[in-house]
Amino acid sequence: MTRGLLLAALCGLTACQRHAPETATADRVHYLVGDAWHAGANWFYPRETFDLHATCVATVGRFHDGQVLADGVVFHTGLLTGGHQTLQLPSVVQVTNLLNGRRITLRLDDRGPADPARGLELSPEAARLLGASGPTPVAIDEDSGWSQALARRLGGGDGTLAAAPVGVVSVESLPPPGSALPTAVTEAATAARPDDSATAYPDRPPPGPVQMPVGPVAYVIDGGSFSDRRYAVNFAQRIGGRFTGSGGRRPSFEVIAGPYARLDEAEAALDLARRVGLTGARLTVEQ
């Protein structure tokens, strides 16, 4: 057997083999936070967050019928869904297209996008409702109640428990020896538990859309924060940006570059920030 044929045979049996993406026909939905993951040199660190408010650039993802998303949902054409790099799954967010003001309510079921210059992945149907045909500046506002209801329903979440019953207890004087003790009388109502029912919080929320005000947008690079002013000064100079913040008992200095009127300018600035060592730099949007 020639060397080429031998290598081909070994590749067919081992790591050279390409595996097709997982497909299925029925949902196997589960709660997911997950481990850190990376795409090339870019690392992302999922965490449980129920109050996310952020801006970013969204992209239209490549989904296909039968694709199993990160939380077990099976994708089909027309499904309104999306992906986020770090949020627990599933999560419910309001997404606003900052160019035209369209806002939809969206359940996120997948991880992505892998590109650090993009912060949200949209299914084709979500992109259609938002009027987004390509990279689009958006605002993301998490629906805390909805996200926590889904988390608890699937066995995850922050573990918050309803408050213990609170009441005013009145007890009569003790009876003679040998008699039964009196029963305490609770006068106040039991504190209400969160309503996690499918009636209050359906598994998949109605999308909208609704129309919001529109204004000019600009792109800004968030280079991260430092407790040492010297590092902030150094990185700000290297990316042609600036730093804000102050010292004190808990010093914090933010490195920022921009604003940029054009997305391609902001993407070039983000690339520079990552090259000089700001590996957690993010592309954000101001309006």
UniProtKB/TrEMBL annotation:
Annotated region (Disordered), positions in chain: 190-213
PROSITE patterns according to UniProt: PROKAR_LIPOPROTEIN (PS51257)
Signal sequence range: 1-20
Keywords: Lipoprotein, Signal
Gene Ontology molecular-function annotations: peptidoglycan binding
Keyword Flavoprotein recorded: no
Domain SPOR: 218-277
Pfam families attached to this UniProt entry: SPOR (PF05036)
InterPro entries tied to this protein: RlpA-like_sf, SPOR-like_dom
Name the UniProt record assigns to this protein: Rare lipoprotein A
Species name: Endobacter medicaginis
